[in-house]
């Protein structure tokens, strides 16, 4: 009788199985409790089998962060793929709505990349920053298109300080050299939608707000009125 194959040999893609198990752990116990040995036990494999892919827990966390940012970026691109490029207001609104939809659908991913830091973990900037920047590219490109069309409302904005120009310039290197004002507005828009989504996912909305989506949709319209002229 031939020996029973190891569990790892039965898994078509062990690396993806490790990640899927990690997401389940995060959903059930929180990201700080993530454990390579616990994942190995759940998958029925030895710890060294995981170490071949992720030598340390932090390596797995970094991979999950990159995957989460990639998923967010892809959902943003997919949301506006079928919309006319000239309908800039619709594209901006759709991106905002899609952001919340993704976050609500994948709260563990959202909280891992934007929530409470994991004790002892420090994200390697050379790996995670490009992934984070890529996730916001659809928003940045849409705001750039609004600026190019002469419809971006910035006439009442305070001038960018040299310090802010320098910081935005560092970000620009990851976004194809976008205009500093565009990056600033993208950051402000992201912070506004992020705040509402974080309150909703963290169940911190006041109890009388029974449909956070209504608040969110109104804020999207407010942002359109603020930044995109007709």
Rounded to the nearest angstrom, the radius of gyration is: 21 Å
Which percent bin holds the helix content?
55-70%
The CATH homologous superfamily of the largest domain? Tetracycline Repressor, domain 2
Name the CATH architecture of the largest domain. Answer: Orthogonal Bundle
Distance between the termini: 75 Å
Give the total of domains. 2
Low-confidence stretches: 1-9
CATH topology of the largest domain: Tetracycline Repressor, domain 2
Number of strands: 0
State the secondary-structure class.
Answer: mainly alpha
Describe the oligomeric state of these chains in a short phrase.
single chain
Biggest sheet record: none
What general form does the structure show?
A: globular
Q: Strand share of the residues?
A: under 5%
Elements, N to C (H/E): HHHHHHHHHHHH
Q: Provide the residue-averaged pLDDT.
A: 90
Name of the CATH first level of the largest domain = Mainly Alpha
Q: With helices defined by DSSP (H or I, 4 residues minimum), what is the helix count?
A: 12
């Amino acid at each position: 009788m031939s020996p029973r194959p190891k569990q790892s040999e039965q898994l078509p893609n062990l690396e993806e199985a490790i990640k899927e198990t990690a997401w389940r752990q995060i959903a059930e116990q929180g990201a700080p409790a993530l454990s390579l040995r616990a994942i190995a036990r759940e998958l029925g494999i030895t710890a060294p089998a995981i170490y071949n892919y992720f030598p340390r827990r932090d390596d797995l966390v970094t991979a999950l962060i990159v995957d989460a940012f990639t998923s967010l970026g892809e959902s943003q691109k997919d949301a506006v793929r079928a919309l006319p490029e000239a309908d800039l207001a619709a594209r901006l609104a759709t991106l905002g709505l899609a952001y919340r939809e993704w976050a609500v659908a994948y709260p563990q991913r959202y909280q891992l990349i934007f929530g409470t830091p994991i004790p002892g973990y420090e994200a390697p900037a050379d790996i995670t920053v490009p992934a984070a920047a890529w996730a916001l590219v659809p928003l940045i490109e849409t705001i750039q298109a609004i600026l190019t069309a002469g419809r971006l409302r910035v006439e009442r904005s305070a001038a960018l300080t040299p310090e802010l120009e320098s910081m935005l310039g560092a970000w620009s290197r990851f976004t194809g050299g976008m205009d500093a004002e565009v990056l600033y507005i993208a950051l402000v828009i992201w912070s506004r939608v992020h705040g509402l989504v974080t309150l909703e996912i963290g169940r911190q909305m006041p109890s009388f707000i029974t449909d956070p989506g209504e608040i969110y949709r109104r804020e999207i319209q407010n942002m359109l009125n603020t930044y995109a002229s007709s």
